[in-house]
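As noted in the main text, all predictions were made from sequence alone. Below is one such record, for K+/H+ antiporter subunit F.
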Amino acid sequence: MLDFALKISVALFAIAIVLNLYRVAVGPSLPDRILALDTMYVNSIALIVLFGIWLGHRTYFEAALLIAMLGFVSTVAVCKYLLRGDIIE
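Prediction:
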């Protein structure tokens, strides 16, 4: 039963990533594209954690943690660049 639920959730998160990729490519404005990219980070973290549960390896959880940190820092940097025009003051 758990295996079936994992397969369904992996498929749904993969579809969500594809839809986020569409929003990144076609988004009407730059903030919409940044938000879609941030949502894609969150979906990829969930997908990696689900793969880690499915395969039973701990390294996937460490990879998800690294992607979460990089996603947060990059989102903050891009938003700061949009607001001020420079990342480092």
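DSSP finds three helices and no strands in the chain. Helices lie at 2-26, 30-55, 59-84. These features were considered when defining construct boundaries for the mutagenesis experiments described in Section 2.9.
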